[in-house]
Design a protein that fits this description.
The complex is a heterodimer of chains A (about 260) and B (about 110). Chain A folds into two domains: about 35-45 and about 55-115 and about 185-255, Four Helix Bundle (Hemerythrin (Met), subunit A) (Up-down Bundle); about 120-180, no CATH class. Helix content of chain A is about 60%, strand content about 10%. Chain A has helices at about 15-45, 60-85, 90-115, 155-160, 190-215, 220-225, 225-255; strands at about 120-125, 130-135, 145-150, 165-170, 175-180. In chain A, a hairpin with a 4-residue loop joins strand 1 and strand 2. In chain A, helix 3 packs antiparallel against helix 5. The longest helix of chain A is centred in the C-terminal third of the chain and has 31 residues, at about 225-255. Chain A is elongated. Chain B is flat. In chain B, helix 1 (about 5-40) packs antiparallel against helix 2. Chain B has one domain. With about 110 residues, chain B is an all-alpha fold. Chain B has three helices and no strands. Chain B has helices spanning about 5-40, 45-65, 75-100. Classes of the chains: A alpha+beta (about 260), B mainly alpha (about 110). At the A-B interface, helix 1, helix 2 and helix 7 of A face helix 1, helix 2 and helix 3 of B.
Chain lengths: ~260, ~110
């Protein structure tokens, strides 16, 4: 059975079906991320003064990931343009850069997540607070070792100084009242950060799978039906650019403001 | 697929050049957002407005050029207009719910 309108345009829409479908899908994606951004605004505007964290994320890593995604968007469009010209080799070259960029993005994001899950605030029984990254090798059942600092209060953690002189802190386990990491359960900020960037990461992974499948295992279609193959690349590219677009809002809202 | 004509080749080269320029613009935009977020404009609201305005321009560039929205068919514009209406409604309802008239405090 032939699937209609994979290449030729429908008279009523003026588009091939996959393109119409992907734009409808992207419209639903706007609503999905829109609802999350709306939640972010609600929680942030409603937070009491001084209780919303600032500078908890490394903006340099966020900026690096932004540049990587921008490069991947360009190589993706250039790959498609070369396919339009019939240059399959150049398409493969540029699209491989897209895939490498996407993997780099995930690598940096994983590093950030790892840092957050190993970053702890330790409340001692005498009321003092220590904050820093857990040194797993040196931590034992009897003592916890972190590279960190001693904030004056919980409030000081909400907007920590940009340059902290970290030092090795050893705390005996019996003196610890509570240990909390910077994971999703810590507060609304980290909850939203992990939800939204996690959802974005899932989109990146989905994008890599689709782009790689078209680039590699499914590229036989280029020989049998090149126009349909080119359309597949275009549709995957639209999704990829959308993923880039969403990140352009995630970066300033979470890393900068 | 037939071999590309000289004209098509030139068009694509122009297309690629345009995308590279836009990518540089996007990268510069990101650096500018960092600057606006760290500069003291006298009010934090101004920092938020400036940073989000730049992000919106960047998003427009991606949608307009990388997603070819500027040269897209009318039906897609229709979808996007409806999406924008619902998107604004979602944000609007959020703010409406926060208005003092809708919050009653019992002491």
């Amino acid at each position: 059975m032939n699937i209609p309108y994979t290449v030729e345009h429908r008279e009523d829409t003026g588009l091939y079906n996959a393109k119409l479908g992907v734009w409808l899908f992207l419209a639903s994606e706007v609503m999905l991320f829109g609802a999350l951004f709306s939640s972010y605004i609600l929680l942030r505007v409603g937070a009491d003064p001084g209780t919303w964290p600032r500078h908890w994320l490394d903006y340099k890593l966020g900026a690096l990931n932004t540049i990587i995604l921008i490069i991947s968007s360009v190589t993706n469009v250039v790959a498609w343009a070369n396919l339009k010209l019939g240059s399959f080799g150049k398409y493969r070259f540029y699209q491989s850069i897209t895939i490498v960029c996407a993997i780099l993005f995930l690598g940096i994001k994983s590093y950030e997540y790892y840092g957050k899950f190993h970053h702890y605030t330790i409340t001692l029984k005498d009321g003092r607070i220590a904050d820093g990254h857990l040194q797993k090798e040196e931590t034992t059942k009897d003592k916890v070792v972190i590279d960190g600092w001693w904030p004056a209060s919980e409030a000081a953690l909400m907007d920590p100084p940009t340059k902290i002189e970290e030092k090795k802190i050893e705390i005996e386990s019996k003196d610890i009242a509570e240990m909390r990491n910077y994971g999703p359960a810590r507060n609304n900020f980290t909850g939203l950060y992990f939800t939204m960037t996690g959802l974005h990461v899932l989109h990146i992974i989905g994008g890599i799978i689709v782009i790689f499948a078209i680039w590699g295992p499914l590229n036989g279609m280029w020989k049998t039906d090149p126009e349909r193959y080119t359309n597949r690349v275009e549709v995957a590219g639209l999704f990829w650019s959308f993923v880039d677009l969403v990140w352009l809002f995630i970066f300033p809202t979470f890393y900068l403001l | 697929m037939s071999k590309a004509s000289e004209q098509e080749l030139q068009d694509v080269k122009k297309h690629v050049r345009q995308h590279v320029i836009i990518a540089i613009g996007l990268a510069l935009g990101s650096l500018t957002t960092i600057w606006t977020s760290q500069t003291n404009f006298g009010s934090f609201s101004l920092n938020v407005a400036a940073t989000l305005a730049i992000a919106s321009v960047q998003a427009f560039l991606v949608a307009a050029f990388f997603m070819h929205l500027l040269s897209e068919k009318k039906v897609i514009y229709c979808f996007l207009v409806f999406t924008a209406i619902f998107f604004v409604a979602v944000i609007g309802v959020t703010f409406w719910a926060r208005m003092p008239a809708n919050v009653v405090h019992y002491q």
